[in-house]
Design goal:
Radius of gyration: 24 Å
Helix content: 25-40%
Strand order of the largest sheet: 3-2-1-4-7-8-9
CATH architecture: 3-Layer(aba) Sandwich
Low-confidence stretches: 1-41, 295-314
CATH class: Alpha Beta
Oligomer: single chain
Number of domains: 1
Structural class: alpha/beta
Length: 341
């Protein structure tokens, strides 16, 4: 039987195709492994701070003070120059208060919020970065979480639709309002980092997260500072998320109040948030005994209490998050600038 030989050109083409496939797979793997480095070295980082209706004078003062702080730290820590910062204030009183620090301050409505997101989608380059920070109040309406703004409110589905066309490599959505956990699923997509103040549950009371975040960034937090919390040798978005949540927890414990917000992070694109901060939170101190006999029977424990809290009060750091399939991995590679001491 006569054996047919393949032409040399066909063999060469087959070899080239195989090499190309292997190279393509290697490049894809390298891109996945280098996601963090690419995200950290973005050419331009833009930021949108949108604040909903304050509701009353006390919240207006708190929100205004937080945004004033964020105007400064967005430049010094987050690397956002003033011309790339957009602010939408909750009302005209807040707008007037913020304009001396940031003249291009508008009013947050559903229309201005959707316009800002559409503008970002149209003008951002693939190598750019875009952060969105939401501050304000929300209320439940059926299965919707309505963000309260002047005029028509906006829910999670409408917001996600407005943000759908944003396609730059680094996308950070930090939603600090109540009921924000409901916003993760519609917003989620590969490469997008979403952080919320609450889980997808009826956590609808006013949140501490926006004020804790501002305090951690400007160094005025009561308990926690911004530093390399996860111990990977860099200062990253994950460190900022962890520091903010440690500060939130400390604030609730300081007033002996049940914590009504449980932050979530989703950065693997599966639409399910995780409490990655849980292993980093300080161990809750045990209740002090009031039994005189127990105190007398445990002199060593009494002496230790006088010397200060035991080292076991502080939770040991868990292993580094090193899998791209786990929440917290991508956030490790969004690098921040070290705050001035």
């Amino acid at each position: 039987m006569k054996v047919r030989r393949l032409p040399l050109l066909v063999l060469l083409l087959g070899c080239c195709a195989a090499v190309s496939a292997i190279a393509g797979a290697s490049a894809a793997a390298a891109e996945r492994d280098a996601d963090g480095d690419a995200a950290a070295s973005v050419a331009n980082r833009r930021m949108l701070i949108c604040c909903g209706l304050p509701g009353d004078d006390r919240h207006r003062e708190q929100m205004t003070a937080a945004i004033e702080s964020l105007i400064t730290t967005s430049q010094t820590v987050l690397g956002v120059p003033p011309e790339r910062l957009t602010i939408l204030a909750g009302d005209e009183v807040m707008q007037t208060a913020l304009q001396p620090l940031h003249s291009a301050t508008g009013i947050c409505t559903r229309e201005t919020l959707e316009t800002a997101l559409a503008d970002a989608a149209e003008t951002l380059k693939p190598s750019d970065a875009y952060w969105v920070l939401m501050i304000g109040h929300s209320h439940p309406y059926g299965m919707e979480s309505q963000f309260n703004v002047s005029g028509r409110d906006i829910n999670q589905s409408q917001f996600a639709q407005a943000a759908a066309a944003i396609g730059c490599r680094e996308q950070v959505f930090w939603l600090t309002q109540p009921l924000s956990g409901f916003w993760i699923k519609p917003l989620a997509r590969p490469g997008r980092i979403i952080m919320t103040a609450t889980e997808a549950d009826l956590e609808f009371t006013a949140t501490e997260m926006p004020y804790a975040l501002a305090a951690v960034l400007d160094g005025s937090a009561d308990t926690e500072s911004l530093h390399d919390i996860d111990g990977d040798g860099t200062l990253s978005l994950l460190d900022l998320y962890l520091a903010t949540n440690i500060e939130v927890t400390a604030r609730f414990r300081a007033i002996d109040r049940l914590q009504t917000e449980h932050a979530q992070l989703d950065d693997n694109g599966d639409g399910r948030g995780s409490e990655v901060q849980q292993p980093y939170l300080p161990v809750e101190p045990e209740e002090e005994t009031t039994d005189a006999e127990n105190v007398a029977d445990e002199p060593e424990a009494s002496a230790a209490a006088e010397d200060g809290p035991a080292e076991s009060q502080t939770a040991a750091n868990p292993p580094l998050i090193q899998s791209q399939y786990l929440d917290g991995f991508r956030s490790r590679y969004v690098l921040l600038q070290k705050p001035a001491s």
